Structures are given as C-alpha cells and as structure tokens.
From TrEMBL, chain A:
Signal peptide: none annotated. Residues 6-247 form the ABC transporter domain. It holds the Pfam family ABC_tran. The keyword Cell division does not apply. This is Branched-chain amino acid ABC transporter substrate-binding protein. InterPro entries: AAA+_ATPase (IPR003593), ABC_AA/LPS_Transport (IPR051120), ABC_transporter-like_ATP-bd (IPR003439), BCA_ABC_TP_C (IPR032823), P-loop_NTPase (IPR027417).
Automatic annotation (TrEMBL), chain B:
Transmembrane segments: none annotated. One of its GO terms (biological process) is L-amino acid transport. GO terms for molecular function: ATP binding; ATP hydrolysis activity; branched-chain amino acid transmembrane transporter activity. This is ABC transporter ATP-binding protein. Keywords: Amino-acid transport, ATP-binding, Nucleotide-binding, Transport. InterPro entries: AAA+_ATPase, ABC_transporter-like_ATP-bd, ABC_transporter-like_CS, BCAA_Transport_ATP-bd_LivF, P-loop_NTPase.
TrEMBL record, chain C:
The keyword Transport applies. One of its GO terms (cellular component) is plasma membrane. This is ABC transporter permease. It comes from Pseudaestuariivita atlantica. Its main location: membrane. Belongs to the binding-protein-dependent transport system permease family. LivHM subfamily. InterPro entries: ABC_transp_permease, BCAA_transport_permease. One of its GO terms (biological process) is amino acid transport. The keyword Transit peptide does not apply. It is a multi-pass membrane protein. One of its GO terms (molecular function) is transmembrane transporter activity.
From TrEMBL, chain E:
It comes from the Bacteria. One of its GO terms (molecular function) is branched-chain amino acid transmembrane transporter activity. This is ABC transporter permease. It comes from Pseudaestuariivita atlantica. InterPro entries: ABC_transp_permease, LivM-like.
C-alpha cells in the first residue's frame, strides 16, 4: 500500500463527547476515484478538514506521497500537492472568474511576493489560469465577477481553481451539491476524465454520480469506516443499506 | 380558486433581470413542484413570493394582493419558507430556533419533535454544529412552527444522504396526507417529485415554460426543460 | 496598604465596571443584533445626562430626571435608527462607521448649541448622598452602592431578556440571519428599532447615573465609548455575559492598576519617577489587558464567532 | 496694505469640549476693543478645535495670508508650545491671554512673547502659599499626568512649607476619582491640593463632597470659575481657591468691566474673560504708542511698561515678560441662590515667577 | 458617469493646480492647506493598502503617523539642541535632513507595524479594529507621559528640515515635495493592487480559506500589507510633523486614526484616488465651514451623513457609478 498518494492512519477527532472521526484509515491510490459516503453528520467534512489541514486531529496521521504532513498547515499541504474544493463555494466574490483562477496559478507558482508587475502581464499565470478555465468551460466568462455566476458555474470554478494547482491529489467535498441533473451529468463526465491526472477523494451524496464514478467506496458512519469496497460490494452490503442507502441501493 | 396566484412576475438583481414572466397557481391542499435547470429562477421566484426581493407583476395569496408587503407580513399571512441553503440560526439551540419562529396554531414543539424525532433528541444543541441533514429537518420544523397554510421547500434535500432524503420525502408525504397543507416544492430529483406533487411548473430562463398535471409531464418535456 | 483601602478600591472597581457595563451592554446588543458599529453610542450617553440635568434643574426630582434620561435617549435612539441606521444595514461596515461618526459631530455640537459650552448641574438625590458605614468600618458612598445594585439588576434583567424570552431569542436569531427571521414572520424593522432604543436607553441611563457624580458636559461620551468598546471586545462581541465580565475586568484593572502600579514601581525607582511611570503604565493598563486577551483569545472571552 | 490699522489674529478654542474658555477669552477681548472705540483694530478669530496641528496651521494662515501684526488667544499650553516659538521667530508679537507654560517663561522666553494672564505655576504657588499661611502641615496633592499637571504640583510644593502626604498623577481626562478619594481618606493628610481643569475638577469635587471625607481642599481657580461653579453646585462650598482675578476685586476698572460684560453678553464674566479683556487693553495701550510692524521696538517697550488699567489692580511685567501681580485666596460661598467666590485674603503679594533667572533676554 | 482613469487624472491635475493658482494669487495659506491635504492623503493612501485591498480596518494607524512624526521630532530636536541621542552604548547625532528622517520614519513604523500586525492579525473584524486601537492608545499614553520629549506638550522644531536642492521653507517647494511623495505612493498603490501580491491579498480579504487552499498563507500576506501600509503612513507622519514644525501625542490619537478611515470612506474605499479626494474634500470643508459658523461641525456631520446615505462607494463611487469593494 506504499504506493498510495494520500493516506490517513487512525485519524481521530472529538468534539466534546462526540467522536466526529474515530480511527479513520483510508488511502487514495494513483488514478482512482475513491468515494467517501455516509449519513449526514457521519464526519466526512470533519475528515476532509483534517486531511486538508484546516483541523488538527487529536490522534493519527496524514501522509501525502509517503511524507507525513500531519503537522503541516493548509498552505504547506497545498504546496505539497493537495487540492481541495469546498462544500460551500469559497471564492473571491468581488473578483472576476479569471482572477480567481489566477489566484490558483499564483499559489501553484509559489511566488506571491511580487509587488510591482501587474498580473495581467504575467504570461505564465495567465496561461495557466485560462487553461484551467477552458477545461471546465468557463473561458467565456473569464471577466465576469463571481458574484454574477450561477450556482453551477461557481461549482465549475471551484474545480478550475483546483486544476490550476496541478495537484498530486484532489479532495472534493460534494462537488455536485446544488447542481441540476444535467449539471451533475456534466460534472460526472468531467471528473471521470480527471482521475488520470490525479486521484480524487470524493465526498458526495449524489449516488448516481458515486456509482458511476467510484473505483472504490468507503462508508463512514458515526466517525468510523464500516466498509470499503467496489461499488458493487458496497451496494450489496446490508450494513451500508441500513445505515445509508436505504432503498436507493 | 387558488390559494397562491402568481402572474406576469418579473424581478431583477440590481440591473440584471432574473425573472421575466413567471406565472403559477397553487390551490389549497395542493402540492406543486417548481422545476427547471440551474439558474432558471426558481429560488428567485420563491424570494419574490416571500417578499425578500422587489418584484413587479401580480402575486395574490388568499386573495390578498402582496404588492409592497414586507416579508414578515407575508409570513404572518401564512407562507412558511424552508430556504435554499437551510439557513438555521447558527448560534441558537435547536429549541430556540423553533421558538423564534413559533406562532400559535397546531404546530408546536412537541409535534415537530414527533415529525422529526432527531430534533427532539438534539433540542439543546447549537444549530451551527448540527449535521446537514439535521439542519434541513430543523429548517422544515422551523417553517412549520409558523403554522403556515402554504409551505415552500427550496431544495430541501440538497446535500442529504439517501436515507435522510427518504425520511424527508416521507415527511412531506405525511404532511400532504395528514394536514392538507399546500406545498410548493423545488427539488432536483424528478422521480421523488413525481411521487408527491399533484402538478408541476417548469421555469426556463425566468419564464414559465410549462405547467400542468404531474401525469402530463412527458419524458420529452422533462428532458427538454429539466434535463432528465 | 490597609485591607480597608483595598476593599474600598475593589468596590470602586466594581462600581466603575458596572457603569461601563450599562454602556457596553447597549453597544454589544446593537452590534450583536444589527452588526452595527455604533460610534454614536457615546452621544446617547450624553443625551441621557443632559436630559436628566435639564429635568432635574426644572423639577428638582432625581427620579423624574432618570425617567427623562431613559425616555430622551430611547427616543433619540429610535429616531437615529429610523432616519439613518435603517438605510445602512446593507451597506459596508465602514459606511456605518462614517455615518455614526457624523452623528457624533451633530449630537455633540447640537447639544452645545442647545445648552451652551459650560457643564450642567446634576447632583445626587438627598436620599442617596453621603457615605454609609459598611461592616468592617469601611465608609463608602451610598450612591455608589446604589449604582452597583442598579447595574447588577440591569445585568440580570438583560440576561433574562435575551436568554429566556421569546423577544430575546428573536433578537439573537436576527443576529444570525436577519432576512430569514423576517421571512419567518418577525417584523425585523420594529425589532431593530426596539433593540436600538433599548441600547440607547441603557446608555442614557448610564449617562444620567454617572452625570450625578461627574461632569455633565459636551463630549462626555467619547472616552466612555472607547472604554465600552474595550469592554465588549474583551468579553466577546454580542455576548451580554461577556460584556458584564469584561466590564468588571476593565473596572478592576483600571482602579487597581492606578493604585498598585505606582506603588510597585516605588519598590525599585525614585518616588517621583515611580509615580509618573506607574501612572503612565496605569493609563495603558486596560489596553494592555485588551491586547493580552485578544492575543490569547482572538474572539474575546465569551465570543462565539469572529465578528 | 500700508500700515496704520492694527490686525490681530486670535486663535482660540471655539468648538468641542473646551470651547467655554475660548469663548470667554474672545468675548472679553472683543469687548475691550469695542470699548476702546478703535475702528483701526481688526480682529480675525479662528477656531483651533483644541488641536495643536490645527493651531499651527492657523498661525501660518494668520501670518502668511492675513498678515496680522499680533497673535493671541490660545488657551492650552500644548497648543501655545506648538504656535508661539515659530510665531515669535517670524517676528510677530504673541500676547498670551491664558496659557503660560514654563518653557516659554524660562529658556524659551522671547522679546516678542508676553503673557498677560500668569505663568502657569502662579496659582498653584499661591495655593501653596495659602496652605502654609492657613497652617496646614501635611498635604495630599494630585494632578493629571501631563506637563501642566507636573508643573502644578511643583508649583504648590515650591511655596508649601509642610509635608507631602502623597503625590498622585491621574489620567488626563479621568472622570472617576473614587480611587484617589479613598487614598485621600486613608492618607492622614490635613489638606488636599488638586489641579484638575475642566470637567475633571467638577467630577472630583462632586465625588469628594459625597464621599464624606472632610479634609479641607485648596486649588487653583480653574475649577471654581463661575461657569463651573454652576455645574458643581453646593459640593464646592467652602473650598478655598487662588486667583489673580475675582469679580469682587475692588477697583473702578473691574467694576466697569463686570458690569459692561454682563450688559453686553448677559452672563457674568469669568476669569478667562478678564484675561482676554486685559490682554486687549494692554495691546491697545501699546498700539497708542507705536504700530508693531512699523516700530516693533517701541511697541515692545510700551508693552513692557504695561500702562493700562488692569481689572486685577496693580499689574506689571517681570523681566521675562510674565505678570507680577497679587494672587488672592477666594472662598466659595452662597450668595442668595448663586454660588460664587468671595475674596478672603491675598495669598501671594506682587508675585512674579520662578523662571525669571532662566530667561536670558 | 465618468471613467475612473479619466477622473483620476483630473483629480491629480486639480490637486496640483490649486497651489499653483494660490502662488499666482499670493494666497500662501492655500498652499499650506493643499500641503496638509496632500500629507493626509498620503497617510490615507498608506491605510488604504491595508484597508482597501486587504480589508484590514485598522483603527490604530495613528500609531504609525505618530511614530513618523516623532522620528522627525526626536532627530530634529537633537540636531537643534546639539545633544546627540544616546541609546545605551549607541550615540546617534540628530539630523535636519529630510531623507534621513524619512528613512528612519519608514523603518521605525515598518518595524512597529510588524509587531502590531503579528499580534493583531490573530483576530479579525471588529476585534481587529479594537486591538489596533489598543496599540494606538498604548503609544498615545506612552507619548503623553514621555517627558523627555515634551510629553503632552510635544516638541517644537524651529526651522523646517531640509531637502537637498530645495528650500523647504518656501511653501510651494514644500508642497511640491509632498506632492511628489504622494504621487510615488499612488504609483505604489496602483502597482500593488494589480500585482500578484495584490491579487492574493485581495482574495485573502474575501476568501481566506481559498487562499490557504491554493498554498498561500493569508496571514503572511496581510502582515506584509500591514507593514507596507504602516510604513507609508509613518512617512506621512514625518512630513506632517515637518509641515507643522511640531509633533505632539495628538498625532497618536484615536481620533486621528478615525479621521484617516473617514477620509478613505469619503473618497471611496479601495479606490486609487479615494484618499486624495477624501483628504482634499475634508480639508476644504474644514476650512470653509469653519469660517462660516462656530457650529460648523454640525454642518460637517450633515454633509458626511449625506455622503454615506446617498453616495455609495464614496465620492469616486458616486462619480463613476460603481460601488467598489465591500469592507
Ligand atoms: N465545531 C464543531 N463542534 C461540535 N460539533 C461539531 C463541530 N463540527 C462538526 N461537529 C459535529 O460533528 C459531526 C460530524 O460533522 P461533519 O460536518 O463532519 O458531518 P458530514 O459527514 O460532513 O455531514 P454532511 O453530510 O451533513 O455534510 C456532526 O454531528 C456535527 O454536528
Ligand atoms: N444575488 C444575486 N445577484 C445577482 N444575480 C443573481 C443572484 N442570485 C441569483 N442570481 C441570478 O439569477 C438567476 C436565477 O437564479 P436562481 O437562484 O433563482 O436560480 P435557481 O433556479 O434557483 O437555480 P438553482 O437550481 O441553481 O438553485 C441566475 O442566473 C443567477 O445567476
Ligand atoms: Mg459535510
Ligand atoms: Mg435555487
């Protein structure tokens, strides 16, 4: 299992008496989409927060490409190649679509301490940002302020910013949330192609998407992983059906 | 005789128009699905009805013209809203969330707790620390505490686990069956909408593109206007 | 230093703190509920004091003076809210800062225009004047004891109002999501006017109570305003409990700092220099306290969110 | 503009909290000019808002644009320190109707700078002198922690023969004195000297009266001026304060001043009004001799002679151009409904100031 | 509605034209007023870097203004008294040279800004406003009781400091100098805003979590902005002290910090020319209204209120019809 790009070992985090994540060990292998599903409040977002560095675990570790990054900050992990998207879009709302993408490119370049030359004249930044926008189909909206984007477009931009980082691994918290049926379909198609670039740890409640995309699925219930397996295995698992899927299995 | 009548509704955000010509009707006790792709104006329509946005055209509720009414007056007239994005009062406890909205009527803390036992269990917890599904239940419970005659659910199942979704749909079905509450429901899942709704209204770029009985919603209309 | 002096100073610190609380409570309520940084809060304090002085001057009754202070400040608050603040809820914070700054100018100079540049007379009622002897032989002004009692009563009342009544719950709900509470049938404009008037009335009450032992003059509100801000920030913005604890902390720090710091420096400095250095440090003490609290807890002692 | 007329620039505080003093100085000054009937004297008045930087810029304006010959009006020492040195360095005359910081009396004295009110220490020294003569042996003294406060305590100690029980610096602008009063109570002093100008003094006196501490209090006149006594009320009764002026000083000039001021403005004149009035009269007496721009030396010489009817009675200048004058002890008394001051004696006779020797002029 | 660039150029031209007119009309005080406006604008441009781009509402920027002022006051005082400044074993001669004073002011305020920023940036929102106020007040009270340099009375410098090649005592020359510094600061502001750093800082104001998620440290971005901002305001303080030939603790007062914010809001937050318009308007109003009535502050209050209520985005927002960033 040492070829895992991203790996958690025994991650535990408690809020008071509540164990939000409890000894969670997962891994993300090259080229795969690993879906993390589970009931509301199971601890998925809490896990993502620990993986991305926004939350310190009480116990356990996170490894990225074999290196222990548990003690590193969000920024350091991002620089080490971890890109995340947010469950609720976190974008600079007053800025244009291009500027948000350029921010990602700037982060990837690792050189924000340039005070005098305008971004617009920095070809490297511009190309990288535009390339990412083109891939999600937002190139025509580059000059639109984010506040004027529709919900679906904002989700696309979230992904585009992650793309500019050219990361080693993606962590996505509900990228389909709020997308309509055709939006979800398009996003599903897009993520499908993305896995060759870098593996994706995907938190999602949209079972159509999960079943279509995931190479493996882990099920988190009350902070614990109760099952990991292929889509077929998970759909058959009675414990998962009882805890999560109900009759949508 | 419809409970809510909307016609020729237009609305804008600043200078950008979002609704051009929306009309819809909801009769007493009726469940109507409001459908359409992303960004077609469903939420905007709801906001207009609830007085959260300036609008032009006609909106009548129970024969009263809602033009110029502030949103609290509309709510008191009997429209309960479960907003997009849940919007619980994060620093209040579950119980306080419900009390904040309460007005006298059939719906009480106990009855909401019967509908959503989970809320009863968590009554002392800060709403901000609830999970998404719990927050969604709270938002519905909170709207019911206003004892509305029309309940509006905007994406009430977004971000919820399948099992919880089923719970919410079951609750909606129960509301329909037991209380005769009129419901306007917006959701992504056409399949589930079809099970509870009597009629559907479909928006396309800020206009009502289709309305009719749920049974009349043929797959090609649905494919063309909703993408499913 | 004798124990008696120490106890007396602690009482003084408490009393000062309790008065600060009256100011801070209104400020924190208004900030918490409306997200409004109300620089004009000090002006309402001044309005209360001037109203009290004017009415006491005519009627000679302190009770009527207090009633007038409450009424005038509440009225001024309601007028400000309806005429100005209401139009600014959607505006950026800084616009509110500028608007309330403009209100300070208008109120201060308007008061000077009405009442002249000289301080006004407002005195302690006879029933509360003079010292009482407390157990242990401590002589302490009766009026200051009354202030402590009033402050604590108001604190309890406010806590009950916000935590236990439906009005309080709705006020706090409004802090979280104004649009949503309106969409649930609460008349948010009226609620806000009410909260603003309530906060203003508290400031006016403080102004009148304090005016009886201090100088009733134009500009009296500004130093207190800064202290009240210090208090609510230490306590955690929006929290009544925080305002109370913060006020007591600031009151005690200020009073005891002024007492002990010079004494402390006298241990290892020439008396002259010690007095001055000590006094200098004492005047910085509450700001140092605030700095320390915020470095340690960036959202104040009882703050739940970063405002 | 071809001289002849005299142009006076008055920079004083007319808005905000400290406006009362500036208004009185202005009114006293303008009254004297009016009474002199001189329409060749023009007074330009500007509001410094009690901000030193504004005062400096106004002085620039007076000098550069208005081309005034004489400057006056500043109330506060820190503003005077900001304005006076550069004004006199530019050859203008400055006549101070109030602020008299020690720096301008000693090393920083200047031939073109005259103080018509006092050297800042004067009233404090007088308080010390009075306390000694009243037989006090042990004083508790307090003042705000700023230069004028330190000067005040120094001035008191200079003339006070007894011991100092404790010396306390309060915050500038402090409004609550409970802590200080408690310390006074515990100190065992037989007298209290305080210098707390403006609202600070009002607060202190009210709180002191209510505390039940009955150690006698002495202070400079600032906290006992007519306008302030109205706000303090009975709490001030019996307190002895020192002043170079009082409305009951018995001379013709003063009686006429008090009456005409009341007639003109409908209120009793204050100490500050008397100083503004004297300043103007001194200036006019010198202008009768020479125009400051045409013959500055003669004008200066005439100022030094101080040949005008001061409302305080005898008035002359020490060599550093600060007053030599009697300073009275006054007691706060009730006359009918009005609480006011009554002279109870002379605290210091023909008193100059301690900085004469530092002034090399 | 006017294009912002055209408007900006017009504002600068007008700003430079007023003192030239005053020179021609022999109104030297108007030049002094314009100089005052230019220096206040410079201080506000400094604050605008932190506030307008970074969203850091500092109510303690008077700290830097005062530090710059005292850098000038102390150095010139020692030069004037021929008594070198002794700090421990170090002996530093005072100076009357503006460039040296400027560098001292820049370095001193940058260092202090770094310390204040480091501690204050742990907080956000109103807490940040108040903690910066607290630091400002600490310095204010310190300056008041620092009797070595005049305490409350401040320090007077008899002759304005010198700048190579200029006679700074001539009002128009001193104006020219301050105007040049202001222009340089405006260029810096414009460059910062469109630079990669500005992009990241601007995003750190709106969505700090996003900035961190792309690998940039929002706290460090803000700290650097705060330091640059403090340094520029410090430089303005040194110039202001030179304008008045005087420093006093009022330069540290919270009212001054508030005034700097007010200037920016009047002109337009985050706008290149916001501080310039705000300062010019404020100084002009102060001067003009003050001449009309004793109660001119009421009128000023009314005008400010009118601006807030009817001109979203300040004067520039009003003229260009765009509201500008939300802070
Ligand atoms: N800061 C916190 N303090 C207390 N409890 C918390 C906090 N954050 C999360 N929780 C609790 O931890 C549990 C896990 O929350 P989390 O947000 O990780 O769930 P989730 O699996 O992402 O749910 P959803 O699918 O609804 O987003 C929930 O019960 C939640 O109430
Ligand atoms: N606050 C806003 N400011 C400007 N435009 C907005 C705003 N909110 C929505 N819009 C625009 O108005 C249009 C209608 O949006 P609305 O939210 O009503 O759509 P919707 O049908 O509810 O979509 P979804 O399914 O994504 O919730 C969209 O084009 C959107 O971009
Ligand atoms: Mg989640
Ligand atoms: Mg919607």
């Amino acid at each position: 299992m040492s070829d895992a790009v991203l790996e958690t070992r025994g991650l535990s985090k408690a809020f008071g008496a509540l164990k939000a994540t409890d000894e969670v060990s997962l891994d993300l292998r090259p080229g795969e989409i690993h879906a993390l599903i589970g009931p509301n409040g199971a601890g998925k977002s809490t896990l993502i927060a620990q993986v991305s560095g926004a939350l310190r675990p009480d116990r356990g570790s996170v490894r990225l490409e074999g290196r222990d990054v548990t003690a590193r900050s969000v920024e350091a992990r991002a620089r080490a190649g971890l890109a995340r998207t947010f469950q609720i879009s976190a974008l600079a709302m007053e800025d244009s679509v291009f500027e948000n993408a350029a921010l990602g490119a700037l982060g990837a370049s690792g050189r924000p301490w340039r005070f005098l030359r305008p971004v617009a004249r920095d070809a490297a930044l511009r190309d990288r940002a535009m390339a990412a926008l083109e891939r999600v189909g937002l190139q025509d909206a580059a000059d639109t302020p984010v506040s004027a984007l529709s919900h679906g477009q904002r989700r696309q931009l979230e992904v585009a910013v992650a793309l500019t980082l050219q990361p080693r691994a993606f962590v996505m918290d509900e990228p389909m949330a709020g997308l309509g049926a055709d939006g979800s379909r398009r996003m599903t198609g897009f993520l499908d192609g993305l896995r060759d670039e870098a593996p994706i740890l995907l938190v999602e409640h949209d079972m159509d998407a999960v079943f279509a995309l995931a190479d493996r699925v882990s099920v988190l219930v009350s902070g614990r992983v109760i099952a990991t397996g292929t889509v077929a295995e998970i759909r058959r698992d009675p414990a998962v059906q009882a805890a999560y899927l109900g009759d949508s299995a | 005789m419809s409970l809510l009548h909307v016609s020729a509704l237009t609305a804008r955000y600043g200078a950008a128009p979002a609704l051009f010509d929306v009309s819809l009707d909801i009769g007493a006790g009726e469940v109507v699905a409001l459908m359409g792709r992303n960004g077609m104006g469903k939420t905007t329509t709801v906001k207009a009805i609830c007085g959260m946005l300036p609008w032009e055209g006609t909106i009548r509720f129970d024969d009263a013209d809602l033009a110029g009414w502030p949103s609290h007056r509309i709510a008191r007239a009997g429209i309960g809203l479960v907003p997009e994005g849940r919007r619980p009062f994060r620093d209040l406890t579950v119980r306080e969330n419900l009390i904040a909205a309460a007005r006298t009527g059939d719906w009480t803390l106990e009855r909401v707790a019967d509908l959503f036992p989970r809320l009863g269990e968590r009554s002392g917890q800060r709403a901000g620390s609830l999970s998404g599904g719990e927050q969604q239940m709270l938002a519905i419970g909170r709207a019911l505490m206003t004892n509305p005659r029309l309940l509006i659910l905007d994406e009430a199942t977004e971000g919820l686990a399948p099992l919880v979704r089923q719970e919410i749909w079951a609750a909606i079905a129960r509301l329909k069956r037991d209380t005769g509450l009129a419901i306007l429901v917006i959701d992504k899942s056409v399949r589930e909408l079809a099970q509870v709704a009597d009629r559907a209204v479909i928006l396309e770029r800020g206009k009502t593109a289709w309305q009719g009985g749920m049974a009349d919603l043929t797959p090609d209309i649905s494919e063309r206007l909703v993408g499913v | 230093m004798s124990t008696i002096l120490l106890i007396e100073q602690v009482l003084n610190g408490l009393q000062f703190g309790v008065m600060l609380f009256l100011m801070a409570a209104g400020l924190t309520l208004i900030f918490g509920v409306m997200g409004l940084i109300n620089l004009a809060h000090g002006s309402l304090y001044m309005v209360g004091a001037f109203a009290a002085a004017a009415v006491a001057g005519v009627t000679g009754s302190f009770v009527l003076a207090l009633a007038a202070a409450l009424a005038a400040a509440a009225l001024a608050g309601a007028v400000i809210e309806i005429a100005v603040i209401r139009r600014l809820y959607a505006a950026p914070h800084l616009d509110q800062v500028l608007a309330t700054f403009a209100l300070i100018l208008i109120f201060s100079e308007g008061t000077r225009w009405l009442f002249g540049s000289f301080p006004l007379y407002l005195d302690i009622p006879d029933a509360l004047s003079g010292p009482v002897t407390l157990p242990g032989g401590i002589e302490y002004p009766r009026y200051r004891l009354a202030l402590i009692a009033i402050g604590i009563a108001v604190a309890l009342g406010l806590w009950w109002l916000t935590a236990r009544t439906r009005l309080g719950i709705r006020i706090r709900a409004g802090e979280n999501d104004r649009e949503m509470i309106a969409a649930l049938g609460v008349d948010i404009s009226r609620l806000y006017t009410l909260v603003f008037a309530l906060g203003a009335a508290l400031a006016g009450l403080a102004g009148a109570l304090v005016g009886a032992i201090q100088s009733v003059q134009v500009g009296m509100g500004e130093p207190v305003l800064i202290l009240a801000f210090v208090v609510i920030v230490i306590g955690g913005i929006g929290s009544i409990k925080g305002a109370f604890v913060g006020a007591l902390l600031v009151g005690l720090t200020d009073t005891l700092g002024g007492l002990f710091l010079p004494a402390l420096f006298r241990l290892f400095m020439a008396p002259d220099a010690a007095t001055q250095t000590g006094a200098a440090l004492a005047s910085m003490a509450i700001y140092i306290l605030m700095g320390l609290v915020l470095v340690w807890r960036p959202a104040g002692l009882f703050g739940t969110r970063a405002a | 503009d071809g001289h002849g007329g005299l142009k006076v620039g008055m920079i004083t505080t007319l808005s905000g909290g400290g406006a009362g003093l500036g208004l009185d100085v202005r009114d006293g000054f303008l009254l004297a000019v009016k009474q002199a009937g001189r329409d060749d004297i023009e007074v330009v008045v500007e509001d410094d808002q009690r901000k030193p930087d504004i005062a400096v810029q106004l002085a620039d304006k007076m000098i550069q644009s208005e081309k005034v010959d004489v400057l006056t009006g500043i109330i506060w020492s820190n503003l005077a320190m900001a304005v006076v040195p550069s004004a006199t360095a530019q050859g203008k005359f400055y006549l101070s109707p109030n602020a008299g910081p020690s720096a301008l009396a000693g090393k920083g004295c200047h031939p073109n700078y005259f103080n018509v009110a006092w050297q800042n220490d004067n009233l404090h020294e007088a308080a010390g002198g009075y306390a000694t003569s009243a037989g006090y042996k042990n004083s508790f003294i307090l003042a705000p922690n700023y230069p004028a406060g330190k000067d005040a305590l120094t001035g008191y100690k200079r003339m006070f023969g007894g011991d100092i029980a404790a010396e306390i610096y309060t915050d500038l602008g402090q409004t609550d004195y409970a802590s200080e009063i408690a310390q006074i109570r515990a100190s065992g002093a037989d007298s209290v000297f305080f210098f707390l100008p403006g609202g600070m003094g009002i607060s202190f006196l009210k709180q002191y009266a209510d505390s039940g501490v009955d150690i006698p209090v002495v202070g400079p006149a600032f906290s006992f001026d007519q306008g302030i006594l109205k706000a303090v009320g009975e709490a001030a009764l019996g307190v002895v304060n020192t002043s170079q002026w009082s409305k009951d000083i018995d001379n013709a000039a003063n009686a006429a001043f008090v009456e005409s001021f009341q007639a003109e403005y409908g209120r009793l004149p204050s100490l500050y009004a008397s100083q503004g009035f004297d300043t103007a009269n001194l200036m006019i007496s010198a202008f009768d001799v020479a125009h400051p721009a045409e013959d500055p030396d003669a004008f200066r010489e005439a100022l030094r002679k101080a040949e005008f009817d001061s409302v305080r009675g005898d008035f002359s200048f020490a060599s550093n151009q600060h007053p030599i004058q009697d300073i009275y002890a006054r007691e706060v008394v009730q006359e009918g409904d009005v609480i006011t001051n009554r002279i109870v004696g002379v605290a210091l006779e023909n008193h100059g100031n301690a900085y004469v020797d530092d002034c090399k002029m | 509605m006017i294009r912002e660039n055209v408007l900006n150029a017009g504002i600068l031209l007008a700003f430079a034209a007023v003192p030239l007119w005053a020179l021609w009309a022999d109104e030297p005080f108007t030049i002094t007023l314009a100089t005052r406006a230019a220096i206040l604008a410079l201080a506000a441009v400094g604050l605008n870097i932190a506030l307008g781009i970074g969203g850091l509402v500092s109510l303690g920027h008077a700290a830097f203004f005062g530090l710059g002022g005292y850098a000038m006051g102390i150095l010139a005082h020692h030069a004037q008294t021929y008594a070198p400044l002794e700090i421990g074993p170090l002996t530093i001669a005072g100076t009357k040279s503006m460039p040296v004073i400027w560098i001292t002011a820049l370095v001193a305020s940058a260092l202090v800004a770094w310390v204040i920023g480091k501690l204050s940036l742990r907080t956000t929102g109103v807490y940040f406003i108040m903690i910066t106020l607290a630091f400002g007040q600490m310095l204010y009270y310190f300056a008041i009781s620092w009797s070595a340099y005049g305490g409350e009375d401040g320090l007077s410098i008899y002759v304005r400091n010198g700048f190579p090649g200029l006679n700074t005592l001539v009002p128009i020359q001193f104006f020219g100098l301050t105007f040049a510094v202001l222009l340089a600061a405006l260029v810096l502001f414009a460059a910062l805003r469109s630079s990669p750093f500005g992009l990241a800082l601007n995003a750190a104001r709106q969505a700090p979590a996003r900035v961190a998620a792309v690998g940039l440290d929002p706290a460090r971005l803000k700290l650097v902005a705060f330091v640059i901002s403090g340094a520029v305001t410090g430089l303005a303080g040194a110039l202001y002290a030179d304008l008045n030939r005087f420093v006093s603790p009022t330069m540290f007062s919270w009212q001054l910090s508030g005034e700097l914010i007010v200037l920016i809001v009047i002109g337009g937050v985050g706008r290149l020319m916001g501080p310039v318009v705000g300062a010019a308007l404020f100084v002009a109003l102060e001067h003009w209204l003050g001449g009309l009535t004793e109660y001119w502050l009421i009128a000023l209050g009314g005008i400010l209120l009118g601006l807030v209520l009817f001109a979203r985005g300040g004067v520039i927002g009003l003229l260009t019809g765009k509201a500008g960033p939300h802070v």
